[in-house]
Structures are given as C-alpha cells and as structure tokens.
C-alpha cells in the first residue's frame, strides 16, 4: 500500500511539473525565443554599470575628442572654405590619424600655436627675460605650434606613400596569380587584402566597402588613387578602369602593370644608389676630411712652428 502511494505521489508531481512547464512555454515561449534570438544577434548585454562602461573608454574618446568637436563648431565661421578643403585632402592622404577631420585638425593648430606661444612667454618671464625677449620667444612659439601639425601630416603622407610603393609590386603579383587562377577581380582584391597587413591592403578594403555600398568600381578606384596619390597606383587604377571600359582581359593588364612597376622600382633604387656618393660628400668634407688633415698635417705644422720659434 505504501508502495502504491509513493508511486502515485511521484506521478502526480511529474504530471503537475510537466503541466506547469507546458503552460509556461505556451505563455512565455515566443518571448523567450525573441530574447534568445536577440542575444545571438546583438550579444549578451553587459552587466557592468553604465558609469564603469564610460570610464573604460579612453580619455581621448571621452574628453579630448568631444572638446575638439565643440571648439570646431565655434570656429567654423572663421575657417576659410578653401583652407579647410586643402587640409581635408591632406588629412585623408595621411590616413586620417587620430580619426580627426579637417576642422578638428585646424582647431588643434590654433590650440598648439596659442599654447606654445604662451608657454614660451611664461618661461621667458620666469627666467627674468626682458619684454622684447619674451615677445621674441612668443613669436617663435606661435608659428612653431602652428606648423607642427602640418609637419606631422606631411611625414605621415610620405610614410604612407613609401609603404604603398613597396607593397604594390607584390600585391600586383598576388592579384595576377589570383585572377589567372579563376577568381574575379573583386574576390582577388579581397584575397590580397587578407594576405597582407599594409596601407595598400587597408585601401583595397575601403575601396571594396565603397563598392558594396553602391559606388561604381570606376569611381571607387579613382577615389582610392586620389587618396593615396602615388603615381604607380594611379597608373594601375587607370589601367583597370580602361580594361573595364574596353573589355580587355584584366589578367594581361595586371601582368603588364606588375612588370612595369617592378622595373620602375628597380630604376628608383638605381637612382638612389647613384645619388648616395654625392650625399656622402658633404659629411665627408665637413667631418671626415678635417680630422684626416689634423692627423696628417698636425705633426708637420708643429715642426714648422718649432723651426720658426728657434
């Protein structure tokens, strides 16, 4: 009797649990599926407080970048449109360092010029310099702070151009092999971008993203050539546009371009090698030859001076 009572209790408990589970799934099942799908797509929400999430963001993103944007809005009316366009072209060619636009770089130039001039003025006052000397220091600091961002951007542009010129022949070889193996031009570009980690690969990825967003390939290639501003890359983009327009085989164009670019790089290397002796002449004349003259002619000059003294 006790055995059957125990079995009946277990069956009642299992039936009640199953019934509750069925009712729960019937009422909240659709909502649970939606939440599970959102977790798969968006990800599990962070359990950190909002304040802690904000503090985990770098100081540059939390304070400096918004401050530059606010000042840029105030100074927009004082920045000439032509200067802003020229600076924007330079910033894009430099790879947009710091993710700053042209207006923010202009604000940075104003801030650096003012800050450096004020610091040199204050340093002159602390060192008990006279008023004209303080003015001279401030006059040196203001243009130095104003030109510093331009010097930095020019250095970044030269660095990016050199990297593109070095990576372009190898990228064209891989692109040629990929196209001749049967891949389309777009897939071959993505394969080249995946296999290398360089400025050229980043430009290829950006160009493909523009194409995926609806921009025609011709315009995307022209924009990439304008951004990088390298002669070899501009020639390559022009050849691809011409081949696409006339229906010429892209494989033959790529092979020819690769050979020409490698020949140009060899010629540039030979030109630099021929310029090296001329560049070495100036340090030799200024630093090496005087030391050699002192070693060779020093004893003779001392003997001549002693002979005249006697």
TrEMBL record:
Under the heading InterPro entries, the entry gives: T2SS_GspF_dom
Q: What is the lineage of its organism?
A: Bacteria, Bacillati, Bacillota, Clostridia, Eubacteriales
Q: What is this protein called?
A: Type II secretion system F domain protein
Membrane-spanning segments: 6-28, 107-124, 130-153, 281-302
Q: Where in the cell is it found?
A: Cell membrane
The scientific name of the source species is Desulfotomaculum nigrificans (strain DSM 14880 / VKM B-2319 / CO-1-SRB)
* Transcription recorded as keyword: no
Membrane topology reported for the UniProt record: Multi-pass membrane protein
UniProt entry tagged with the keyword Transmembrane: yes
* Residue span, Type II secretion system protein GspF domain: 172-297
Matching entries from Pfam families are given as: T2SSF (PF00482)
**Predominant localisation class:** membrane
Which terms in the GO cellular component ontology are assigned? plasma membrane
User: What keywords were assigned to this record?
Assistant: Cell membrane, Membrane, Transmembrane, Transmembrane helix
PANTHER family per record: INTEGRAL MEMBRANE PROTEIN-RELATED, PILUS ASSEMBLE PROTEIN
């Amino acid at each position: 009797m006790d055995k059957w009572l125990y079995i009946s209790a277990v069956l009642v408990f299992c039936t009640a649990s199953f019934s509750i589970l069925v009712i729960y799934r019937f009422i909240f099942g659709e909502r649970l599926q939606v939440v599970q799908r959102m977790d798969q797509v968006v990800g599990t929400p962070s359990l950190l407080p909002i304040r802690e999430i904000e503090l985990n963001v770098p100081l540059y993103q939390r304070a400096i970048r918004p401050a530059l944007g606010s000042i840029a809005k105030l100074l927009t009316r004082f920045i000439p449109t032509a200067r802003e366009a020229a600076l924007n072209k330079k910033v894009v060619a430099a790879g947009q360092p710091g993710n700053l636009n042209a207006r923010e770089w202009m604000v940075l130039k104003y801030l650096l010029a003012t800050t450096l001039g004020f610091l040199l003025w204050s340093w002159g006052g602390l060192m008990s310099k006279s008023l004209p000397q303080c003015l001279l220091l401030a006059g040196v600091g203001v243009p130095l702070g104003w030109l510093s961002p331009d010097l930095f951007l020019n250095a970044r542009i030269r660095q990016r151009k050199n990297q593109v010129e070095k990576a372009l022949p190898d990228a064209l070889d891989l692109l040629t092999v990929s196209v001749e193996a049967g891949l389309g031009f777009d897939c071959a570009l993505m394969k080249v971008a995946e296999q290398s980690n360089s400025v050229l690969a980043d430009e290829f990825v950006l160009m493909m993203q523009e194409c995926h967003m609806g921009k025609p390939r011709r315009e995307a290639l022209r924009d990439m050539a304008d951004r990088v501003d390298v002669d070899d890359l501009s020639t390559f983009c022009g050849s691809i546009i011409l081949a696409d327009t006339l229906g010429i085989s892209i494989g033959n164009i790529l092979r020819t371009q690769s050979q020409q670019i490698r020949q140009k790089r060899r010629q540039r290397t030979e030109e630099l090698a021929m310029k090296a002796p001329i560049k070495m002449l100036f340090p030799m004349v200024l630093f090496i030859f005087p030391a050699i003259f002192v070693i060779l002619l020093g004893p003779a000059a001392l003997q001549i001076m002693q002979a005249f003294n006697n």
